[in-house]
Every structure is written in structure tokens, then in C-alpha cells.
């Protein structure tokens, strides 16, 4: 069983490595070419050092038979040594560019994957953890593979050149040095498995620690963390996680140090044996001093090249499981859906017998719901916390697909992308884009003009606020990036409303659109809501009954079901749950 897995993994490694190499080449063709050229120059320079070393020894020991005089030999030796030394820093710098390009390409693939994932997948914990692991580890791996592959190419060239030199001196020296590689490769295979297991084990812990770091450092949390004096407790947790990470890391580092020490010892032992063999060959008169000198240089350089070769192979083996993880992630999920087409709404949207349960949850969040929103109508959803209002709104907006039941648009079951293109949602926790006001409004960019953005801002009651902003519509909002202007919570909410109005779809879902508005603004919004919506239909979710009483129809939800439905007056007359909640709320104002 274990052997079978090992064999499968061994077969998969070359395929993954080749795929990674292709990624690198496609990320930056000319950069890869330049980096490969440096490897070639490095190998040629290393060979040059051996050859000019031999020439120098010849010129010193047997000047009468030397091909070149001592001075030119020394000059050439200095030149090739300098060249061989200079290549490495050039390579390092070239690798920086290549590394960035590779990371950009892999990020693009990752972003394609996250864009493809539907909301249910995105919200499941398995997805978030896999994404985090891929971000933490696999993103750097294609570049590690590049470095390893380039190192492998260069060292193979070097090993080839040095081996040729050694073969001419004494063929036995070569297997002696190469033998050191076998345990090195086997050890690195073992190390690679422990490294992947380590990364897998620690992803959840890293996620929790990163979250704490965000709480402790990011601006949106700064006020509350200070107000609750939460820093000491958060730091304490952070410290406990550090201790956990340190213990796991120490154990892993010890494993890796063991591998490194054994590999280095193997190479050093082979080097010593080869040098002893050279001494033996000189003593027995089988080779001259000049050959021995050149062979010693070649052995020394070959052991260096072999070190690179083995660590490159180790790097490739180590990266393979991470690459497989990345590959699994980017090929997971459905293929990219085509962009949806915005549809007009002539009759209305109807949900019939809709059920929806979140993955891993025993109960349906929405359980057999029928609702209808006719064109141009304002329909309200009310109900206690957790009764399923937001979930239902996401089904209406095409963000979730019902497990059973139908969602018809003018009597037709539209594909989800078309529904998403035709419905706009503002969530309770809408996004505060740290960008200009104009960008905040036009983020959906339906190709609207500057006038349309200003029109949306005006309809959302932002006119006065825009007048006070230093650069008007082009003022950057928010201080997260340290360059913008902060606006109040209610103003942010108006910006979100403007964003929804700008998108101009026939149906808008407004989830608690007035939570942060002052009483006057809320009153203005709801008394003029039909004018503000400009004929669009709206699904309004609110806990404030004063906001929803003007709706054409109110659905009351409880435990995922619609328990009552009617106009405000009808529901009050029915004296059911709505009437009870309404009276409770209005009593508070008396
Ligand atoms: N992403 C999710 N994963 C799992 N369960 C969820 C998720 N979102 C909501 N739920 C659960 O589904 C049920 C309905 O939640 P929903 O957010 O739709 O209620 P709501 O009526 O909008 O609540 P509120 O008035 O508090 O906003 C709740 O029991 C909630 O815990």
C-alpha cells in the first residue's frame, strides 16, 4: 500500500515539475531564457576554472611542455574564477524578477478560481482553509521549482563538464562522488513528505493567528479593541499560538537539520575519499602533479555542483505535494460561468416551494417558501433574527440556488448568472471600498457615464456630503490605506445605496438599508422610496416596522418559513405575529 503510494507519487513528481516549469516559462519567456543563459555561463566558467587550473599547474611544474606561459595561464584562471563567482549574484537578481512574474501568474489562476467559486462554496470552511494553505505555501512553490530546475540544469552542465575532466584523469573517482547522491535524494523525499504534513497541520493555526493579528493591527478594529480594552486578552491568545507554532516549527526544523547534516556529511565523505584517492594515485605514480592539481580542483568543484544538484532534486521533490495541492485547488469547482445578461422585469419574480440548507447544517435555513415580487413593487421581509430573511434574499438575487423549488423570472427559470446580472443587493454588512466616491458607486460598471454616477449619488441623498468632500466625487473614501477621507456610518450607507441605484437593475434587494441612517434620513428614504427606486422593484428587509409599513406586501418569516403575508393593515387586523412585533416596537416609542 505504502509502496504503491510512493510509486504513484514518484510518477506524479516529474509531471508536476514539468507543469510548474511550463508555468514559469509562460509567466516570463525572456526572463526564463536569461536565467537559463546565466546557468550555462556558470557551468562554462566552472569548466574554465578547471582547464585554466590545469594550464597553470602545467606552466608551474613542466614549463617546457606547457601550452601557455605562467602569466597568461594565471590571467585566464583569474578571469574564469571571477566569471564563475560573478554569475551567482546576477542569477539571484534575475530570479527576483522571475519570482515576481511567476507569483503574478499563479495569483491570476488563483483569482480565476475564487471568482468561479459560488457563494456557498466560498462560505464553506473547507474552501477557506484550502485557499489559505495554497496562499501560504503553494504560491511560492512554482518559483522554488524554477530555482531548483535552473539549479538542476546548471549543476547538470557543471557535473557533466567536471565528470569529463575526472574521467580523463581517473574514471574511478566519479562513481565515488556520485554515490553520495543516492542517500541525499532518498532523504529529501522523506523531508518533502514531512514538510507538506507540517504545512497541512498548521494551516488552521496560522489562520487563527493571522486573524488575531488583523484584530490587533487593522484600523477598522482599532476603536472597539481599545474601547473594550481587549488588547491584553488578544495578545495572550496570540502568545499561546506563537508557543504552539514554535513547538511545531522546532520539531520540523530538527527533522530538516538532520536531513541537511546527513546529506552534507555524505558529500563531505565522498569528497574526502576522492581527494585521498588522488593522493594515492600521485603516490603510486599513475598521474602527474599537474593532473592531480586539476583533478583536485575538479573534485572540489564537482562536489559543489553535486551539492547543488542534490539540493535541486530535493527542492523539486519537496515542492511536488504543494504543486499537487495548488493544481487540485485551481482545477476544483465548476468551470467559469459566462457573464450574465441583464433582463427586464415585466411581470415579476416568483419563488415557489423553495428550500435551502447550508452545507453541514441539519436544518433548512429556508424551508418551503413561496413569495412573489411583481415589477415595480416594494415587498418587505420581516421576522426575528435567524428566521432566514438574508438567506432568502440571496436566493432571490441568484447568489444561492434553491435545493428544491423554483425561482421564476417573468415565468421563466433563468440561469443564476442572468439573475445576478438583473438583481442588485445591498447587504447589511456592505463593503466600504477604500477608493474614490466615484469608484464606490460605479464598481459594477455597467458602462454608465459620469452623470449617471452623480445622479445615483444625488438620489441616495449624498449631494450635501459630496459638496463638502475636498475632491468631490473623486475624493478617496476611508482611512484604511492612509490616503482617504473618513465619512460617517450613515454616509457610507448612502454610498452603498448610490452603488445599488447606479447599477440600474429592475430589482433591488435592500437588507437593512437604514440601519445607520438618522431618523430624518430614514424618514426621507422611506417616504420617497418609490421615487428613489425610480420604478424598480424592491425587496426590503428590515427590523424597523416603520420602514416597512408602506410596502405593497409584507412577508413575515419564522424558522425559515413564511408564516404571514399581507399589507400592514391586513396583518394588523389578523392580529398575528406581525401585529405582536409591531406593537412591541411601537410601545417602546410611547
Ligand atoms: N453562511 C452560513 N453558513 C451556515 N449557516 C448560516 C449561514 N448564514 C446563515 N446561516 C444560518 O441560517 C439561518 C438563517 O440566517 P439568516 O442570516 O438568513 O437570518 P436572518 O433572518 O437574515 O437574520 P438577521 O435578522 O439576524 O439578519 C440562521 O440559523 C443562521 O445561523
Automatic annotation (TrEMBL):
PANTHER family: ATP-BINDING CASSETTE SUB-FAMILY B MEMBER 10, MITOCHONDRIAL (PTHR43394:SF1), ATP-DEPENDENT PERMEASE MDL1, MITOCHONDRIAL (PTHR43394). The lineage of its organism: Bacteria, Bacillati, Actinomycetota, Actinomycetes, Pseudonocardiales. Residues 40-318 form the ABC transmembrane type-1 domain. It comes from the Bacteria. Keywords: ATP-binding, Membrane, Nucleotide-binding, Transmembrane, Transmembrane helix. It comes from Actinophytocola xanthii. SUPFAM superfamilies: ABC transporter transmembrane region, P-loop containing nucleoside triphosphate hydrolases. One of its GO terms (cellular component) is plasma membrane. GO terms for molecular function: ABC-type oligopeptide transporter activity; ATP binding; ATP hydrolysis activity. The keyword S-adenosyl-L-methionine does not apply. Gene3D superfamilies: ABC transporter type 1, transmembrane domain (1.20.1560.10), P-loop containing nucleotide triphosphate hydrolases (3.40.50.300). It is found in: Cell membrane. Its main location: membrane. The chain crosses the membrane at residues 32-55, 67-87, 143-166, 172-191, 258-279. Residues 349-584 form the ABC transporter domain. PROSITE patterns: ABC_TM1F, ABC_TRANSPORTER_1, ABC_TRANSPORTER_2. SMART domains: AAA (SM00382). It is a multi-pass membrane protein. The keyword Lyase does not apply. This is ABC transporter ATP-binding protein.
Amino acid at each position: 500500500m505504502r509502496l504503491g503510494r510512493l510509486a504513484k507519487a514518484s510518477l506524479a513528481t516529474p509531471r508536476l515539475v514539468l507543469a510548474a516549469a511550463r508555468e514559469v516559462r509562460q509567466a516570463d519567456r525572456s526572463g526564463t531564457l536569461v536565467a537559463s543563459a546565466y546557468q550555462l555561463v556558470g557551468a562554462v566558467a566552472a569548466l574554465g576554472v578547471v582547464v585554466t587550473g590545469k594550464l597553470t599547474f602545467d606552466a608551474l611544474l613542466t614549463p617546457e611542455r606547457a601550452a601557455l606561459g605562467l602569466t597568461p595561464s594565471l590571467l585566464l584562471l583569474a578571469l574564469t574564477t571571477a566569471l564563475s563567482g560573478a554569475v551567482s549574484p546576477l542569477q539571484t537578481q534575475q530570479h527576483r524578477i522571475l519570482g515576481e512574474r511567476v507569483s503574478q501568474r499563479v495569483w491570476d489562476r488563483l483569482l480565476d478560481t475564487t471568482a468561479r467559486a459560488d457563494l456557498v462554496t466560498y462560505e464553506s470552511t473547507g474552501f477557506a482553509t484550502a485557499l489559505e494553505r495554497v496562499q501560504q505555501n503553494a504560491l511560492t512553490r512554482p518559483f522554488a521549482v524554477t530555482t531548483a530546475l535552473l539549479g538542476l540544469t546548471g549543476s547538470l552542465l557543471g557535473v557533466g563538464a567536471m565528470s569529463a575532466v575526472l574521467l580523463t584523469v581517473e574514471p574511478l573517482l566519479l562513481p565515488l562522488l556520485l554515490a553520495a547522491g543516492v542517500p541525499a535524494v532518498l532523504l529529501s523525499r522523506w523531508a518533502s513528505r514531512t514538510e507538506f504534513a507540517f504545512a497541512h497541520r498548521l494551516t488552521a493555526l496560522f489562520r487563527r493567528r493571522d486573524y488575531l493579528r488583523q484584530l490587533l493591527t487593522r484600523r477598522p478594529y482599532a476603536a472597539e479593541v481599545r474601547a473594550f480594552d481587549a488588547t491584553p486578552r488578544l495578545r495572550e491568545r496570540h502568545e499561546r499560538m506563537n508557543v504552539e507554532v514554535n513547538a511545531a516549527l522546532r520539531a520540523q526544523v530538527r527533522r530538516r537539520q538532520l536531513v541537511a547534516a546527513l546529506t552534507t556529511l555524505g558529500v563531505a565523505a565522498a569528497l574526502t575519499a576522492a581527494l585521498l584517492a588522488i593522493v594515492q594515485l600521485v603516490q603510486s605514480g599513475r598521474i602527474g602533479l599537474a593532473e592531480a592539481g586539476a583533478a583536485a580542483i575538479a573534485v572540489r568543484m564537482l562536489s559543489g555542483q553535486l551539492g547543488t544538484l542534490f539540493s535541486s532534486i530535493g527542492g523539486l521533490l519537496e515542492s511536488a505535494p504543494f504543486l499537487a495541492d495548488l493544481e487540485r485547488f485551481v482545477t476544483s469547482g465548476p468551470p467559469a460561468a459566462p457573464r450574465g445578461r441583464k433582463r427586464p422585469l415585466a411581470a415579476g419574480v416568483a419563488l415557489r416551494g423553495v428550500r435551502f440548507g447550508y452545507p453541514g447544517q441539519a436544518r433548512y435555513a429556508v424551508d418551503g417558501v413561496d413569495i412573489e415580487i411583481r415589477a415595480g413593487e416594494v415587498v418587505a421581509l420581516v421576522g426575528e433574527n435567524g428566521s432566514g430573511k438574508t438567506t432568502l434574499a440571496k436566493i432571490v438575487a441568484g447568489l444561492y440556488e434553491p435545493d428544491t423549488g423554483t425561482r421564476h423570472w417573468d415565468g421563466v427559470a433563468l440561469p443564476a448568472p442572468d439573475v445576478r446580472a438583473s438583481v442588485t443587493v445591498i447587504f447589511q454588512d456592505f463593503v466600504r471600498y477604500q477608493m474614490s466616491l466615484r469608484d464606490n458607486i460605479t464598481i459594477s460598471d455597467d458602462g454608465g457615464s459620469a452623470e449617471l454616477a452623480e445622479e445615483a449619488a444625488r438620489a441616495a441623498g449624498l449631494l450635501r456630503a459630496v459638496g463638502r468632500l475636498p475632491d468631490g466625487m473623486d475624493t478617496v473614501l476611508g482611512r484604511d490605506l492612509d490616503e482617504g477621507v473618513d465619512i460617517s456610518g450613515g454616509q457610507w450607507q448612502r454610498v452603498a445605496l448610490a452603488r445599488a441605484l447606479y447599477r440600474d437593475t429592475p430589482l433591488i434587494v435592500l437588507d437593512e438599508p437604514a440601519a445607520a441612517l438618522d431618523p430624518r434620513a430614514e424618514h426621507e428614504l422611506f417616504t420617497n422610496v418609490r421615487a428613489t427606486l425610480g420604478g424598480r422593484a424592491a425587496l426590503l428587509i428590515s427590523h424597523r416596522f416603520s420602514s416597512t409599513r408602506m410596502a405593497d406586501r409584507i412577508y413575515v418569516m419564522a424558522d425559515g418559513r413564511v408564516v404571514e403575508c399581507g399589507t400592514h393593515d391586513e396583518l394588523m387586523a389578523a392580529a398575528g405575529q406581525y401585529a405582536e412585533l409591531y406593537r412591541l416596537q411601537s410601545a417602546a416609542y410611547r
